[in-house]
């Protein structure tokens, strides 16, 4: 793209001034339209060192309302804390909420191209990063985001001239470092890397716009015109259903819930003896997980009153409290609903060596949100593939991901609901909503069966815990956790 980039004819100075004023006023008006339409906007600035990204950004936001935009500045070298999370984590926690603009002064491009040019990424690792970026940009667009990507282009001579000018002024010297001069010295090599990245991530849903940066005002005008055009299209297309994509991940066969026998039991003596052994082993493994920097996610879904809480309690009783968190998931808060539905789960992705247990998960998208009409049919049908992509991202980053469905029958649920309602110390566990959901048992069972069949991948399969006998379910879960972590520690 950069090699074949043909500069547009630069307008006259008077024409630029007139169009700048018009486009800045249009952007200010479009900002309010974006707010009313509840479209979240990501504007990504990438480019050569000294290409003027910061100066252009200042001009672009000049007439915008500062209450409804923010700027994120991300370094190409992640901190040690950031490197302990999956690649996309530090970017996903920054995405804007609906009706807001977020300007990124460099985003995922700079980290990837820096690591590729430095030899830190081989071909396979680079391709995985590209797949991750294309996936998440597409997901964002499919979920209503406008993603605008600008690359600020300069010739080698122009860049050198600007670097020298910045270095000569004591007030701007801080803006230039060794990497900027190294980039200029190795301009042709960097051009190859940047061009490759731009071609690999230029998609119709989130295309690249190459900006001629020789003149700051001309560069600002180009950005403004492209940005305003993008906003016009996004508002016009608001509400248009995104395409449904075929699942590309291998699946494991899951039986329908109605065919799973629930007569499995365990005697109390056997339960206590095995629980003691499994606790001791899990306690040992937690230390190994921390030493070998293995992240672990244990995700629980299941019927109300199926025994998720007691199951989680037995697992955490074997863990060092400094190395795990339990995340109870309830209805999303307004600031969570205003972002990509997976955003609130990205917040809690564990860093290397730590364990996170989710009491209910991202699967609410294809269960409660589906059944209660909290999202469109297109949203929940698209979510199966998006969730598989999300989980694949976690597993590719080295995460041990375990998913449990805690299964009981309708009669058992009724008995437990009745016991909770009639026992004062348990009444906090039962709500009117639980009774309402029970009336929709058949609808939920249909949704759960489809969920299990479409998201039980070979890298993140579902495990059904038969929980009419809670003791049996607890031991089964502990065995699966211990076995999975043992295998991960052997591989690490």
What does the model show?
The chain is an alpha/beta fold and 492 residues long. It has two domains: 13-236, Rossmann fold; 257-491, P-loop containing nucleotide triphosphate hydrolases (Rossmann fold, 3-Layer(aba) Sandwich). Helix content is 51%, strand content 12%. The chain is built from 20 helices and ten strands. The protein has helices spanning 13-37, 53-60, 80-83, 89-92, 108-117, 123-142, 156-168, 178-185, 187-200, 216-236, 268-291, 308-316, 334-337, 343-346, 368-372, 377-396, 410-422, 432-438, 441-455, 470-491, and strands at 41-47, 69-73, 101-105, 146-153, 208-212, 296-302, 324-328, 355-359, 400-407, 462-466. The protein has a five-stranded parallel β-sheet, sandwiched between helices. Strands 7-8-6-9-10 form a five-stranded parallel β-sheet, sandwiched between helices. The model has no long low-confidence stretch (mean pLDDT 96).
Query: What's the CATH first level of the largest domain?
Result: Alpha Beta
Q: How do the SSEs run, as a string of H and E?
A: HEHEHHEHHEHHHEHHEHEHHEHHEHHHEH
Structural domain tally: 2
Number of helices: 20
Strands, total number: 10
Q: State the share of residues found in helices, binned by percent.
A: 40-55%
